Amino acid sequence: MMLQPVISMDSPGTAPAPAPALEVSNLTVEFPTKRGVLTAIDDVSMRIEPGEILGVVGESGAGKSITGLAVLGLLESPGRITGGKIHVGGRRVDTLGEDELTKVRGREMGAIFQDPLTALNPLFSIGAQLVETIRRHTDLGKEAARARALQLLREVGIPAPDERLKQYPHQFSGGMRQRVVIALALAAEPGLIIADEPTTALDVSIQAQITALLRRLCKEHRTGIMLVTHDMGVIAETADRVAVMYSGRVVETGRVEDVIHNPQHPYTRGLMAAIPSLHDRVETLTQIDGSMPRLNARPDGCAFNPRCPNAGPRCRRDRPDLVTAGPSLAACFLHEGGTQ
Amino acid sequence: MLAFLIKRSANAVFVMLSVSFIAFMIFRFVGDPVDLMLNEQATQAQRDELRIRLGLDEPFIMQFGTFVSNAAQGDFGISFRNQQDVLGMISERFPATFELVIVATIISLVVGIPLGVITAIRRQTWYAEAMQFVSIIGVSLPSFVVGIGLILIFSVWLGWLPAFGRGETVQLGWWSTGLLTHSGRMSIILPALSLSLFQITLVMRLVRAEMLEVLRSDFIKFARARGIPARAIHFRHALRNCLMPVVTMTAMQIGGLIAFALVTETVFQWPGMGLLFIQAVTFVDVPIMAAYLCIVALIFVLLNTIVDITYAMIDPRLRGAEK
């Protein structure tokens, strides 16, 4: 079985069910370079329901951040979407022009980036940046926007918001800044938030607070969150479902507990085995041999075949698609009649 | 703030004393003013008499001490050459130079900053490339060539603007301004333009380089992700982060222009300080040279203070000392 087919949002829907917060179907992103076209994202589909957190996990270069940026329409030149569709809250966004996109960004989809130390403009107070964002997306006047800013700061757990509003980013700690970034992302109550490594730059003790905050906001506001990270631990604590990416493709997707406890793709299995346990002391850490192929040197067939313990001739010849594999979906011939 | 001002003032006094001391030392080697002031038939007695009258018989350190205590009271002495009050001569000339420099600086900022922003955000367009190319010419053309070219076009061929002089001036206390009369305003356009051309290109290239740097930063990407429109991103968020080096450079340039607007003043017969200084050097007119250098030093010290205050206005991170 293939991943659920895309429901067309262009025709007036008859189904009463709310549109998914995010629906990406068959997305392809390419970077034309002097030495040929590099395919960073290759036929990726994913779907996030309102109030659901989808963890997107993979090593650096797997394409997880690019997927997030493509949804936001913030791909850096020369990167461009060459195939597929992106719907946010039922509205198609990948075909919008820059002016239209500017209206959608912040209002219908928010973003949280990796490094809270650099995500805020150092020369403007927190209040100014919040009020600017709020007034951009609502009809609120100055005073009402300020009140809303206070409410947002309270909501993300910043103590003494009245004083904090006048302060500048450098007067906040890393964790507090990430809360401000989250407040900014929430300013217009978007239905979707792209959180790109939101906890990576933070202390471990702060990480748990931020993931708990994200989880709470997601459930309270019915926001869909795409949580991009390389940290399986964060996914396990926070996400409802997970999509494992490898070399520009989704190789496995399913409910978090299924993927963690019962991984179906050899890559996911390797990933899980590589997480060191707190309880056992080991001499050498488990790792997956080799490294992810560069974009311009992808092998034929399955991109994971050079590192895969189960690879057979079929894996070097054909490219597997996502199929039902136990409780999840996995792109591996082991679940499609073998690798011979 | 008070501690800052006191520290600054002490600093300024020290800088000015050093400058005037060095200036005094150098002037001793420029030549003997007595030789230049008297004709060759003067007797030794006449020479000695003049030397005593000017105070040049005293030891160097005494001369310097007298100069400093007088200067502190605004008395820079009498010009050796034309026996006029030095401060009066300078304050007569200073407004002309100052107005010229300020107008040139304003032009360079008003034109240079938007050009810099535009060439940065539209850097792949033909007009941005063309601007970059033209700016190289602007940087490398000597200002007297620009001045002569402007005179040729706007005064000789088109006859729109006066080619020399300052036009009519209005006296505001000791300050004479040309900005309040029509002829004064017309007269300042060409010299200010020729002085600002180099500045424009400098400001433009600086702003462009800074913008390209800032536009790559995370907070710009995040501002876009928040849905802030491009205009506000470029002119509010990015530009403000580019201003520090622009402020620094502008202040240094103002000081430099006041001190060395000489070439432009000569081309346009502008009655400023530059000409006064050159004449003073030719005639070893030590009081004028000393006063001139002290005033230039004072201007630099003031500009530096203004720069520091402006920094704190632009960047909240530098306001820490207030608490």
Automatic annotation (TrEMBL), chain A:
Task: Give the family this protein belongs to, as stated in its UniProt record.
Answer: Belongs to the ABC transporter superfamily.
Q: Name one GO cellular component term.
A: plasma membrane
Q: Any idea where the ABC transporter domain is? A: 22-272
Lineage of the source organism? Bacteria, Pseudomonadati, Pseudomonadota, Alphaproteobacteria, Rhodobacterales
Is Zinc-finger set as a keyword in this record?
A: no
For this protein, the record's Pfam families field holds: ABC_tran, oligo_HPY
Q: What is this protein called?
A: Peptide/nickel transport system ATP-binding protein
Coiled coil start-end: none
Q: Cite the entry's keywords alphabetically.
A: ATP-binding, Cell membrane, Membrane, Nucleotide-binding, Transport
UniProtKB/TrEMBL annotation, chain B:
Provide GO CC annotations from the record.
plasma membrane
Q: Which InterPro entries does the annotation name?
A: BPD_transp_1_N, MetI-like, MetI-like_sf
Biological processes per GO annotation: transmembrane transport
What UniProt keywords are attached to this protein's entry? Cell membrane, Membrane, Transmembrane, Transmembrane helix, Transport
What is the protein's membrane topology class? Multi-pass membrane protein
Against SUPFAM superfamilies, the record matches this protein to: MetI-like
- The signal peptide, as residue positions, is none
Q: Boundaries of each ABC transmembrane type-1 domain copy?
A: 94-311
Taking the first listed entry, what is the main subcellular location of this protein, grouped into a coarse class? membrane
Reading the lineage from the top rank, the first entry is Bacteria
Q: Where in the cell is it found?
A: Cell membrane
Entry's family note? Belongs to the binding-protein-dependent transport system permease family.
Kindly provide the name given to this protein in its UniProt entry.
Peptide/nickel transport system permease protein
Look up and give the organism this protein is from: Ruegeria marina
Q: What is the lineage of its organism?
A: Bacteria, Pseudomonadati, Pseudomonadota, Alphaproteobacteria, Rhodobacterales
